[in-house]
């Protein structure tokens, strides 16, 4: 009976020592676990680097940009990769456990911009139409749009050659007229 107790105690001590030796402390294993989770040793990435690429390529999600910058460590390499491929591969699920997305405002007090393509186009089209008048309004063509065109081929030569006028005022008037013809031709 005493031998069984000794074997059980020895087995428990061996299991305890094995777990202690393989687990290590959390502070010392953090770089190793990051490297193991991502599959590479991450480089130092600043928010300025991410913002610089995001301003050049606003349709690329910031998580994809940050993940590629962690891999390359270079704004130039990441930009070249976007230009060559047209996209950046999404980060693996382990990335989101190591670098969680901030839900609230960022450091400078502004909210993070949405990275989905649908939200960006909806928001930008709403603000663009509020700021800029349409081409019809800009060139005062509302009357021509509402009227029926008398000749169907009136706008056929909208981009054709123009006669060089003698005075700058006549050239400017000719240019405005050709622009108006091109805007009307583009509507058909």
Secondary structure tally, helices: 10
The percent of residues in helical segments reads 55-70%
Poorly predicted spans = 104-129
Which class best fits the helix and strand makeup? mainly alpha
Counted beta strands:
0
Strand content: under 5%
Radius of gyration based on Cα positions: 32 Å
If you average the pLDDT, what whole number results? Answer: 76
Describe this structure in words.
- With 188 residues, this protein is mainly alpha-helical.
- It contains 10 helices and no strands.
- The longest helix is centred in the N-terminal third of the chain and has 22 residues, at 2-23.
- It starts with a helix and ends with a helix.
Keywords:
188 residues, single chain, 10 helices, mainly alpha, rod-shaped
In short:
By secondary structure, the chain is mostly helical.
Summarize the SSE layout with pairings.
Layout lengths: L1 H22 L2 H13 L8 H10 L5 H11 L2 H11 L7 H6 L18 H15 L3 H4 L3 H5 L21 H19 L2
């Amino acid at each position: 009976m005493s031998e069984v107790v000794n074997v059980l105690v020895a087995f428990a001590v061996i299991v305890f020592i094995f777990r202690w030796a393989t687990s290590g402390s959390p502070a010392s294993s953090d770089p190793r676990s990051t490297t193991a989770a991502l599959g590479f040793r991450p480089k130092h990435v600043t928010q300025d680097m991410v913002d610089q690429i995001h301003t050049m390529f606003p349709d690329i999600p910031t998580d994809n940009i940050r993940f590629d910058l962690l891999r390359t460590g270079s704004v130039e390499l990441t930009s070249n990769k976007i230009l060559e491929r047209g996209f950046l591969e999404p980060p693996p699920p382990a990335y989101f456990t190591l670098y969680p997305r901030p839900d609230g405002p960022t450091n400078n007090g502004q909210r993070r911009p949405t990275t989905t393509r649908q939200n960006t186009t909806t928001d930008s089209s709403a603000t663009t139409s509020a700021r800029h008048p349409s081409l019809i309004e800009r060139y005062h063509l509302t009357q021509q749009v509402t009227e029926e065109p008398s000749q169907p081929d009136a706008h056929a030569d909208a981009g054709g050659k123009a006669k060089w006028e003698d005075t700058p005022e006549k050239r400017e008037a000719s240019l405005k007229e050709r622009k108006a013809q091109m805007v009307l031709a583009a509507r058909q």
